[in-house]
Amino acid sequence: VEFLRAQPAWALALAAVGLLVAARAALRLALWVYAAFLRPGKPLRRRYGPWAVVTGATDGIGRAIAFRLAASGLGLVLVGRNPDKLAAVSEEIRAKHPKTEVRTFVLDFASEGLAAGVEALKDSIRGLDVGVLVNNAGVSYPYARYFHEVDEELMRSLIRVNVEGVTRVTHAVLPGMVDRKRGAIVNIGSGAASVVPSDPLYSVYAATKAYVDQFSRCLYVEYKGKGIDVQCQIGLDNRQ
């Protein structure tokens, strides 16, 4: 106590500010640890509904998410461009989770028929209580290259799959969530747009993922009052 009384007022004020900043940082760290490692999972079926739509569901992140959703008791609509891979993943999920109902829908997000394909997807899920949408389908460069070396086909594919595909599928599924006043939309972003300050030699890819990030942020604000959760999951490097 005597030590504190001997200190000038400005030093005590700085110490108080430092203590508040440190306490705030510690609280944020504790909340992050709880959310990342300790918080129990939500009962997805009861909270959002019995069905989930997962795009890009045959490989990698999409495939892993599909298995996790099946373990949570949700029926699945798996969307991908390869019918053989869709059939294989469906059989694997049914073998591991026999009670899970799995449907598939073939859709090539890079094709010129994307708009018509999404309309057909919308028709195919009509009547289903879709509570979860995972927009995972995405493409990147086959290898790093300067922007002036990006050809027309690759540029068109990046924008169509990563931007138009996410936008159209969300637009097709979201109205049902609004009607039911519940739902969750998970968009798969990338650290190329949200973590590093820039991602040279992958400029168009990074820009499309920046769109996904901002699109998700805006939807979160628009629909948080309607019972719909929206988030963008960021991988440090999911370009391949």
UniProtKB/TrEMBL annotation:
Molecular function GO terms recorded: ketoreductase activity
Residues that span the membrane, as ranges: 12-37
InterPro entries: NAD(P)-bd_dom_sf, SDR_fam, VLCFA-Steroid_DH
Gene Ontology CC annotation, any one: endoplasmic reticulum
Keywords carried by this UniProt record: Membrane, NADP, Oxidoreductase, Transmembrane, Transmembrane helix
Family (UniProt): Belongs to the short-chain dehydrogenases/reductases (SDR) family.
Protein name: Uncharacterized protein
Species for this entry: Aegilops tauschii subsp. strangulata
